[in-house]
Predict the 3D structure of the following.
Amino acid sequence: MTRPDLDPLDRKILKELQEDAGQSLDDIARKVGSSKTPVWNRIRKMKDQGVIGRQTVLLDPEALGLEACFFVLVRTAEHDPGWQERFLASVRSRPECLEAHRLAGDIDYILKVRVANARAYDAFYQALIRDVKIHNVTALLSMEEIKSTTILAV
């Protein structure tokens, strides 16, 4: 896939959309120093190129009672495709798991899990180990979120 050629106006539009995708085209155009139609055309082009994906809403987890954030370090002794398929299916099927990454190094996977409390985390953990055999799991409770953003530097 070729990398899209983004000019400074495209980058300004992307910054505005990342700050608030719900703002009107008129507002975006005014803030980036353009007019509505060219901004709309650029947004449509960036969607077609895959630069802009789906649009969604960010929710406050604590307002929803999801006060505990765990980072789960997973080590496995299994590295065959069947195990990996089961593990990935299990992780993808659980809404508590917000992120999952396969890592280089001593830890095979890291999961970001958002739940109400330790008991809810244990339910997540028990369901996970019912689905797949895991060699070692370490759960780290985040005491304070210092920075969290979805905004990419463009």
